[in-house]
Design brief:
This protein has about 425 residues and is an alpha+beta fold. Among the domains are: about 100 residues, Integrase, DNA-binding domain (Double Stranded RNA Binding Domain, 2-Layer Sandwich); about 80 residues, DNA polymerase, domain 1; about 120 residues, Orthogonal Bundle (hpI Integrase, Chain A). Helices cover about 50% and strands about 10% of the residues. The strands form 3 sheets. A 5-stranded mixed beta sheet has the order 1-2-3-4-7, covered by helices on one side. It has a 3-stranded antiparallel beta sheet with strand order 8-9-10. This is Integrase.
Length: about 425
C-alpha cells in the first residue's frame, strides 16, 4: 500500500530521479520539493504517472493524473502542475474539468440525445423528420467525430460553405445545429454563451412561392366549377381547395379539419393544433356555404375524408397531386399549394383591414412572417408609376399646385413596406 502523504519520499524531480525509481509490490508516490502537491505514482508494473494533489475551494480532496512519464518530460509535467494550481487558486477544479471532458459526447452521440430529449418532445413530427434528415445527411458525416465541447465557429462555417450549392438545406442545417448547441449549453456540455453557430450568416434563398395572379385566379375557379359540374375531379379535392382559399389556411389545416372543431352557432373553427399551435378562425358566409354544401360522409369525423377510407383524412400526397392536376388543367404556371395562402394573405392585406386583424385571419404570429406572404400586385405598381409620372409632368409644366403626396398607411402595409418602428408601434416584433 502507498505511504501516507506525510511519509512520502520527497526529492526534486529530475529525469534521472524519476528513472531511478524502482517498482515495488504496491503503488507508492514520490513528492516533488519544487512544486507543492506535485506527485509521481510508481506502480508495480513500472508505470510512473505524474499527479497533482490539491483541495478545491469547497474543501474536496482531488488527485488527478497529469500524464505518464515518457509521454511527458518532468519539466512539462511540472509546468502543467503549476498551471493547474493556478486554476485551483482561481476557484477552478482541474479534476472535475478532466472528468467532464472525458464524458463529453461526440456530436454523433449528442445528435440522438438531442432528438430524443428535445426534438421529439417539443417539435412537430415534420420538424423531427427534418432534423433527423439534416443530422444524417449533413451534420454527422462532417462533424460527427468532434466532441461537443470542441466544435468551433470555423468548423460550422466550413460546413456551411460545403452546403453553399443548396442554400435551403444549408439554412435548415444551421438552424438545427444552433438549437442543438443551445441544448448543449443547457445540459452542461458547453459553457454558457459559446454556441459556435452564433454570427454564422444564413444564405439568401430564392423566393419559392409566386403570387397567383388575378386572371389565373379566374381561370382556376372557372375550372373548379367545371370540374364539379362534369365530375372531372373528386369533390373532396375541389372542396378542399375552395376551403383553403376561404380560410387562408395551410394545406395541413384543411385536410385535418374535423367537424367537431366547427361551431356554426359561434361561426368559428378552432384547430387544437397546427404548425404554430392551436388557432381559431371565423366562419365567413363563403365558408358556411361551402361547409353546408359538401356531403358529409357517414362515420367520418373529417371534413375532407380520404377517398376510399373515410375514417382517415386526405393525405398530403393525394391533395398535392390533385392540386397539380387542377392547376395544369386550368392553365396556371406551377405554384405549390402554399400559393393559395400567399394569394389569400395578399387579398387580406389589400382589403384594407387592420394589420392585427389580417394576422389573425392568417394565424401568423409576427408582422415579419405575415408580410412575407403579402405580394405587390402588378396593377398596384403600374398605378403608382402612373401617379408619379403625372406628378412629375405637372411640375415640369410649372404647375405649382401639385400636392405633396401623403403616405397611405394601408397601402404601405399592403405593399410590404412596414418598417421596424411601425412594427414596434403595433406591438409585434419580427
Amino acid at each position: 500500500m502507498g505511504s501516507p502523504e506525510t511519509e512520502m519520499p520527497t526529492l526534486k524531480f529530475t529525469k534521472t530521479a524519476i528513472e531511478s525509481a524502482r517498482p515495488e509490490k504496491s503503488d507508492y508516490e514520490l513528492r516533488d520539493t519544487v512544486v507543492p502537491g506535485f506527485l509521481c505514482k510508481v506502480t508495480p508494473s513500472g508505470r510512473k504517472v505524474f499527479m497533482l494533489s490539491y483541495r478545491t475551494v469547497g474543501g474536496n480532496r482531488r488527485k488527478p493524473a497529469i500524464g505518464q512519464f515518457g509521454e511527458l518530460t518532468v519539466e512539462q509535467a511540472r509546468s502543467l502542475a503549476q498551471d493547474w494550481q493556478a486554476l485551483v487558486r482561481a476557484g477552478g477544479d482541474p479534476s472535475l474539468d478532466k472528468t467532464r471532458a472525458r464524458a463529453n459526447p461526440t456530436i454523433r452521440e449528442f445528435c440522438e440525445q438531442f432528438i430524443e430529449q428535445h426534438s421529439i418532445p417539443h417539435n412537430k413530427p415534420g420538424t423531427v423528420r427534418r432534423n433527423r434528415q439534416n443530422i444524417k445527411n449533413h451534420i454527422i458525416p462532417v462533424l460527427g467525430k468532434i466532441k461537443v465541447a470542441d466544435l468551433t465557429r470555423p468548423d460550422v462555417s466550413a460546413l456551411m460553405m460545403q452546403l453553399a450549392h443548396t442554400p435551403g438545406a444549408a439554412n435548415t442545417t444551421l438552424a438545427c445545429l444552433k438549437k442543438m448547441f443551445n441544448c448543449a449549453e443547457l445540459w452542461g456540455y458547453r459553457a454558457d454563451g459559446t454556441n459556435p453557430c452564433r454570427l454564422i450568416p444564413r444564405y439568401p434563398e430564392r423566393k419559392r412561392t409566386r403570387l397567383i395572379k388575378n386572371r389565373e385566379l379566374e381561370s382556376l375557379f372557372a375550372y373548379l366549377d367545371r370540374a364539379d359540374a362534369e365530375g372531372l375531379e373528386h369533390p373532396s379535392f375541389t372542396f378542399g381547395i375552395r376551403l383553403q382559399f376561404a380560410f387562408a389556411a395551410r394545406m395541413s389545416e384543411i385536410i385535418s379539419m374535423q367537424w367537431e372543431w366547427i361551431d356554426f352557432h359561434e361561426r368559428r373553427v378552432v384547430w387544437p393544433d397546427s404548425k404554430t399551435g392551436g388557432i381559431s378562425k371565423p366562419l365567413t358566409e363563403e365558408a358556411i356555404t361551402l361547409l353546408a354544401r359538401v356531403p358529409r360522409r357517414e362515420g367520418s369525423r373529417f371534413v375532407c375524408p380520404a377517398i376510399h377510407t373515410h375514417d382517415r383524412h386526405l393525405s398530403h400526397h393525394s391533395y398535392w397531386c390533385a392540386w397539380k392536376r387542377i392547376i395544369e388543367a386550368a392553365g396556371l404556371a406551377h405554384v405549390g399549394t402554399h400559393g393559395i395562402r400567399h394569394r389569400a394573405a395578399t387579398d387580406i392585406a389589400n382589403s384594407g383591414v387592420p394589420l392585427r386583424v389580417g394576422m389573425a385571419l392568417t394565424a401568423h404570429k409576427t408582422v415579419t412572417t405575415f408580410m412575407r406572404y403579402v405580394h405587390i400586385e402588378d396593377d398596384q405598381v403600374r398605378l403608382a408609376a402612373e401617379k408619379v409620372s403625372k406628378r412629375r409632368a405637372a411640375i415640369i409644366k410649372g404647375n405649382n399646385t401639385a400636392k405633396t403626396p401623403t403616405i397611405d398607411e394601408d397601402a404601405v402595409i399592403a405593399g410590404g413596406m412596414l418598417d421596424a418602428s411601425a412594427q414596434t408601434e403595433v406591438g409585434f416584433h419580427g
